[in-house]
Amino acid sequence: MAVASCASISASSLGLPQQAAMPESKASLPKQMFYAKTPVSSGLKQRFVNDIKEITVLGVLNASNTGTASEGRLKEILIIGVLLNTRTVPVDALEHIAKLRPSGILFVCVNIHEGVEECALAVRRARPGRAGHVQQNTVYVGEWRPASETRLALHGDTIEQIWESLNAQAILGSSESEDLDARIARRENIAELRALDAKLTKDHARAKNPTQRNEIYAKLHKARTQLASLEAEE
Predict the structure, then answer these.
(1) pLDDT digits (tens, 9 = 90+) for 149-166
(2) Are residues 12 and 123 in the same domain?
(3) 3-class SS at 83?
(4) One Pfam annotation, family name (predicted)?
């Protein structure tokens, strides 16, 4: 049986069970199905038309083919390959696809850049939030890596645990899913503080008023102290 592939990426190349591979004859998802009959903005339609070359279901993970317990609300995980015409991942298109399915979806984005085939993993997940705040979902995209080095590790006793581990692999580059939301929040805080550090450094260099320079420096010192504390936990 011929199995599905996205460029050179397949369930086998990702290290998934052979039983999880999708037959090639059933794998293709025409781009038009995501915007032809569903009202979408012109911008989102252009993401599908211009940025995405093809969409392929590479495999389906479930309790049977992963040897895990059949419990929990999540029953399956789709592994979807998205061949891109650009190195910029169209997160709004991935968001649109993910919202149409109740199952978890791990996107394997594929791009051939300067003759080198690369992959970036992406998932839609609830952002870490505080109690009492409205939950918001977002698409997280990992770093580009050579396709030949892209593998997925299936850690967990249930599909939900495997899903959490795949989220950790996509977002943080680690298969360890313990305290995942806290680690994601810390990573986001570090990125925000680094951006703030860069901005305040420029503001301090431009400021001519001594009082203003001192105020900016105080903010910069506070940001750097917080940043150093968070980076020490990484």
Answers:
(1) 999 999 999 999 999 999
(2) yes
(3) strand
(4) DUF4391
Contact 9, 106 (CB under 8 A): no
Residues 67 and 116 in one domain: yes
- Helix (H) / strand (E) containing 111: strand 104-113
CA angle centred on 223, ends 133 and 203, rounded to 5°: 115
- Nearest residue to 52 (alpha-carbon basis) of 75, 73, 78, 34: 34
Please tell me whether residues 201 and 140 are part of one structural domain. no
Q: Which residue has the tokens 């939301």?
A: 181
3-class DSSP state of 149: helix
Helices (H), 158-209: 159-172, 180-206
Q: How far is CA 124 from CA 142, 187, 218, 221, in A?
A: 12, 17, 37, 35
Query: What is this structure's pTM?
Result: 0.84
pLDDT in tens, 200-218: 999 899 988 888 988 887 8
For 227, the domain range is: 184-233
Instruction: Say how many domains are in the chain.
Output: 2
3-state secondary structure of 112: strand
| DSSP code of residue 56 | E
Rounded distance, CA 35 to CA 24, Å? Answer: 23
Q: Are residues 147 and 66 in the same domain?
A: yes
| DSSP, res 128 | P
Q: At 179, which amino acid appears? A: D
Other CB atoms closer than 10 Å to residue 224's CB: what's the count? Answer: 16
Q: Is 28 helix (H, G, I), strand (E, B) or coil?
A: strand
- Three-state DSSP at 1 gives coil
